[in-house]
Amino acid sequence: MNSLNSESVNVKKVREAAFQDLGIEERNAGVYAGRWIGTEKFIKSVSPIDSSTLGFVGAGGEGEFREVVGTSLRAFDEWKEMPATRRGEIVGKIGMKLQEKKRSLGLMISLEAGKVITEGQGEIQEMIDVANFCIGLSRQLYGLTMTSERPFHRLMEQWVPLGPVAVITSFNFPASVWSWNAFVASVAGDSVVWKPSSKVPMTSIAIMKIVESVMEEESAPPVFSLINGSGESVGNLILNEGSFPLVSFTGSVESGRLVSQKVASRLGRTILELGGNNAAIISGTADPEISIKGVSFGALATAGQRCTSTRRAIIHESIYERTVNQLKEVYEKAKIGNPLHPDTLVGPLIDRGAVKKFRDALEQAVREGGKILTGGDVIQQDNGYYVKPALVEANNRMKIWREETFAPILYVFKYKNFGEAIELNNTVRQGLSTSLFTSDLNELGEFLSAHGADTGLVNINTATAGAEIGGAFGGEKDTGGGRESGSDAWKNYMRRQTVTLNYGKSLPLSQNVDFHI
Ligand code: UN1
Questions:
Q1: Number of separate domains in the chain
Q2: Quick one: 222 and 358 in the same domain?
């Protein structure tokens, strides 16, 4: 999109080209289990850019769900016997196909989730990165060996495939969060059933078509299945399904609590990636350019609809005024509008409901004594869901900033002592991501100490959002404690087996127990 013309920002035109490249129709079957399964009911996919209908995706019910489970169990039986390196090779091929179709897939995300071009493309890049990571991972999946207390014994642990894994994803990362789970789980030897958010069904079809073509080319079993449908029907079927030893869920704290209880009641495992309420602490010694860019990116990217979005800026009193003024300037200059336009920084919110939540939160903030410094208005443009990101001066007595509002609102606070800043950071129920902007070594040490930031991700001189795939992603407290993607998150998708091997000619017992027969 170098030369900007009206076609390159026209939803209808971009949709037409992307659909054609990705093999998407106006109406698509929404369930895939080695074959596309048509259904009677459809979910409408609406673009938040202009409220236009992108198309329709079939919604599965109980019958389709049973077929998906059956296929997934059979595929698992075959797949788990395949050498892990071959599984890695196949996931790598999916990565290559994603690379080929990156442009159109990214545009699909821009159309359906409203992400600006670079972020839509970035999300597909994130998938390619996970696929590449998984090729290497497939040659590892390593266990430990321990010394044994008994002579001629070996003690070790090995990791064994777990079973069909269910992955429920949310609208804001309609593709990459699936890959964090699906690529890692499949390299680990599991089959994967995906239930995407009903707000972004079309993206799941585009991804699944790519996966389908690679699996067919490689004559691999259908380990990746898809079932679109509502949370109330398909979601509940997943939670209660005993064939899934693991359910990975991304969504709100409220829904996560329910998921956790239901899956736990059948002694299944969960990986929960729930809400965040992330703060950036800006020390008096922070580099002004880095901190302003970091906080602005964290707060404005994806229009504040990331779990990693910066929602609170905790600023040292010595630089408070200057920093707030600089942020205000960025907010007032930020181009809001059609995300297909390369100059746009902030695209639309996902739907009308999100706009209402944005407005409601701001009204509550003002009632509670907060002061809107800039933004907060709803923008009427092209029937899309656009708002002006808000900067709100906040105080400790307010309640609203303790909640996660999935919209671009940044609450700013002033602090005196560093301890106070850490306390304010940790006071919320959520525990996903924190940033510290500083050049002070003592502050850095404090921040990383046991009484420092209590979030799963901590960032020094960089944003709360935009984590790389190589680390384990997830957070503590109400964020749910799950870890996905890199590092040793793969262990979640396997079962650990402790092996005791006696290669001697007698049977010595552990703990010196004497047993006569
Ligand atoms: C999410 O918001 O659910 O760190 C995931 C980030 C992205 C992933 C966010 N890599 O912002």
A1: 2
A2: no
**According to the model, what pLDDT value does residue 4 have?**
54
DSSP 152-175: TEEEEEEEEE---EEEE--SSSTT
In a domain, 500, yes or no: no
Same domain (yes/no): 321, 409? yes
Q: Which domain holds residue 434?
A: 278-469
- Rounded to whole angstroms, what are the CA distances from 190 to 158, 209, 346? 16, 20, 38
Assigned domain for 510 exists: no
pLDDT at 2 (0 to 100): 42
CATH of the domain at 345: 3.40.309.10
Identify the CA nearest to 248 among candidates 64, 464, 489. Answer: 489
- Ligand 1 atom nearest 170 alpha carbon: 3
Cβ atoms < 10 Å from Cβ of 66? 14
| Residues 251 and 304 occupy one common structural domain | no
Q: Which pLDDT score, from 0 to 100, does residue 5 have?
A: 67
Task: Say if ligand 1 is within 6 A of residue 307 CB.
Answer: yes
Identify whether 273 is a catalytic site residue.
yes
Contact 60, 227 (CB under 8 A): yes
Ligand 1 near 172 CB (within 6 A): yes
The residue annotated as part of the active site, out of 126, 212, 273, 484, is 273
Question: How close is the Cα of 516 to the center of ligand 1, in Å?
Answer: 60
pLDDT attached to residue 6: 75
Q: Is residue 99 part of a domain?
A: yes
- Which candidate, 391, 353, 378, 317, places its Cα nearest to that of 46? 353
Whole-number Å distance between alpha carbons of 243 and 285: 54
Residues (pLDDT < 50) of the chain are 1-3
Q: Is 307 labeled as catalytic in the residue annotation?
A: yes
Ligand 1 pocket, 466 CB below 6 A? yes
| Cβ of residue 465 lying under 6 Å from some atom of ligand 1 | yes
Alpha carbon of 83 to ligand 1 centroid (Å): 31
Mutate to test the pocket of ligand 1, among 121, 168, 173 (most ligand atoms within 8 A of CB): 173
Does some domain include residue 497?
A: no
